[in-house]
């Protein structure tokens, strides 16, 4: 549905728009601004990877697929936000990050509408990329010391891309994409090294329901299917506070 360059451009514009719009939401004299970079790892095995897979065309309605295990992946991104000085425990944030939890080589099974396995084969694996943009996280923290625990949550806009070996000589690789809305939740701790610089570590949980359309040229996934994306992430980073 979206090509990666276009998605990256849209996410960049969205992040820029959010940065511009934040001053309109609250007087700057009452806000603690920050901008941060983040790196980490996605750990799909803790959340289930791709599960609850319903297979569509060209299969019989009600056909399901076994869960698909995903690989661990590096995560990277950034965030911008602020905390109100009149309520220093409360803030708003926008963040974006990218991860590539590729589908592992594994045995996969198709089940008929009654849940009985009807076919199985060895899946050689496929490339999976996920970009998550949360336009507005609600942030809650303990602001009375240098070491500040916090939690955050908000809607996430997820863009997923599956890439596999193409079936035609003129199409050596093929990609299927989908964009959907899901959940982004986090908990972490931040340490203020100085008034302007801090370091943080945090745990994130992501949940979304992807729907990929039929793509005859995409191997090993030429069929339409829906899958639940459920993963945990661990991240760390540095922030600058204005």
| Largest sheet geometry | 8 strands, antiparallel, barrel
The low-pLDDT segments are 1-5, 17-30
Considering DSSP H and I runs of 4 or more, what fraction of the residues is helical?
under 10%
Mean pLDDT: 88
Q: Which structural class fits the helix and strand makeup?
A: mainly beta
How many β strands by DSSP? 13
- The Cα radius of gyration reads 20 Å
For the largest sheet, list the strands in their spatial order: 1-4-5-8-9-10-11-13
Can you tell me the overall shape?
elongated
Q: Encode the helix/strand succession as letters.
A: HEEEEEEEEEEEEE
Count of discrete alpha- or pi-helical segments spanning 4 or more residues: 1
End-to-end distance: 38 Å
Proportion of beta-strand residues: over 45%
Walk me through this protein's architecture.
The protein has 242 residues and is mainly beta. Helix content is 9%, strand content 62%. It contains one helix and 13 strands, in the order αβββββββββββββ. The chain has an eight-stranded antiparallel beta barrel with strand order 1-4-5-8-9-10-11-13. β2 (49-55) and β3 (64-65) form a beta hairpin. The radius of gyration is 20 Å and the shape is elongated. The chain starts with a helix and ends with a strand. Mean pLDDT is 88; it is low at 1-5 and 17-30.
